[in-house]
Amino acid sequence: MRYLGVDYGLKRTGLAVCDADETLASPLNVLTGQERLVDQIAEAVRQQGADGIVIGLPLNMDGTEGKQSARVRAFAAEVGRRTNLPISFCDERLSSFGAKEKISGLGITRKKKKKHLDAIAAADILQTFIDERNGR
Q: In what order do the strands lie in the sheet with 12-18?
């Protein structure tokens, strides 16, 4: 199955995609703002031929859900209605930290880092999901 990974944010939302064999997740792009976000995600689903969507769920460090988790679940419901695809969630607690670690040694400007960081976080979320799904 081919999945679209989503790292939802109020300012920026990162997208990633995996191959049909569910072995490798790759950063796709970063969408800014909220105005047409669901439409843009639906378009990415169509362009990438995704069969499902994985959205990072921001849990508290103790595993409980907070206000942001409720926002993400509401957003996911809207995306699910718009795309008619199954929505799965994946714990994203350390995805931004991992993305920052990956990008820190590349020697690129802070502005360019910001531009790619959310897509890398989306790829981390999606990779975690497909690895768990496939027993890796």
A: 25-32, 12-18, 3-7, 52-57, 87-91
**What is the CATH architecture of 3-133?**
2-Layer Sandwich (3.30)
- Could you give the 3-state DSSP secondary structure of residue 4? strand
- CA–CA distance from 84 to each of 6, 34, 50, 78, 90 (Å)? 16, 20, 11, 10, 19
Which residue, among 40, 37, 3, has the nearest Cα to 19 in the 3D structure?
A: 3
Domain ranges of the chain: 3-133
Q: Mutual orientation of helices 95-104 and 110-133 as an angle, nearest 10°?
A: 130
pLDDT tens-digit profile of 1-48? Answer: 999 999 999 999 999 999 999 999 999 999 998 899 999 999 999 999
CB 12 within 8 A of CB 118: yes
Averaged over 112-127, what is the pLDDT? 83
CA distance 106 to 127: 21
Give me 19's structure tokens. Answer: 């191959």
Helix 67-83 vs helix 37-48: angle between axes, to the nearest 10 degrees? 50
